[in-house]
Amino acid sequence: MSTTKYMKTWSRGEYEVDERWISIDAYTMSNLHPATRVNQDVLARTRKSSDEKGLPDIDCPSPHGKFFALQCRMLGVTHALEVGTLGGYSAIWLATENPNLHVTTIEFDPHHAEVARANIADAGVADRIEVILGAGLEVLPQLWEEIRAGKREKVGFTFIDADKLNNWNYFDWAVKMSVPRACVVVDNVVSKGKLAMESEAAGNDMVRGARELVEKVGKDERVDATVLQTVGEKDYDG
Predict the structure, then answer these.
(1) Residue 4 has what pLDDT?
(2) Which end of the chain is more exposed for a tag (fewer CB within 10 A), N or C?
């Protein structure tokens, strides 16, 4: 018998929850990233602060934040890029787990950027996380010109979690700005299980943007890629 429930809130829209998914995330994180870890308190404060200041509950799940941080550690990344800061939760994961990592994160919403900067300062990593306010497609070309001019380093890891119709555009810029063998992660590609439903693309920006991304990446000789479906504390997605 299925234990999956369908929910809807103002901040997340429609989504699925399942006590099995939630319990496994809670169990594994309590063992693999227990409360004794030095960044646990500040990560919890970041989520609490973001919620109290009215940000939508759409930051990455905690196991994903840890996974992204581990990717940076394994690849020896010293400069990372993020498109879509929200409250700074994922950027704080990266920086607090990697003391030599500098993160440049782009946020379109002024209120989100303000909250993120406060959360980042509270985490003690304001010297290593740069929050840039602006539209991604305006900021990314500027960063690229700085890279070309030798004023900014290329990146070894990128996390894209912004407006979904521009997934491909953000990905394309990220690849241009990356060192060889870098990792680029794009969130919400599975689109809550609707990715393969061609009929959904016409009226669903998330699905349309995800399908364009998958189809274009599949033809892009610069990269190799895969899509992972995930379940957990925050929905069925990937």
Answers:
(1) 63
(2) N
Closest alpha carbon to 154 in 138, 137, 175? 175
CA 151 to chain CA mean position, Å? 25
Tokens of 62: 């905690």
In angstroms, the Cα distances linking 113 to 3, 87, 191, 206 are 37, 7, 25, 23
Residue-wise pLDDT tens digits, 82-105: 999 999 999 999 999 999 999 999
Whole-model pTM above 0.85? yes
Q: Between β-strands 155-160 and 129-133, what pairing exists: parallel, antiparallel or unpaired?
A: unpaired
Listed in sequence order, the residues at least 6 apart from 186 whose beta carbon sits closer than 8 Å to its beta carbon are 160, 161, 167, 170, 171, 213
What single-letter amino acid sits at 23?
S
Q: Which residues contact 5 (CB under 8 A, 6 or more apart)?
A: 16, 17, 18
C-alpha–C-alpha distance, residues 141 and 137, integer Å: 7
Strands (E) located in the chain:
4-9, 13-18, 79-83, 102-107, 129-133, 155-160, 178-186, 230-232, 235-237
Please identify which residue in the block is written with the tokens 């998958």. 214
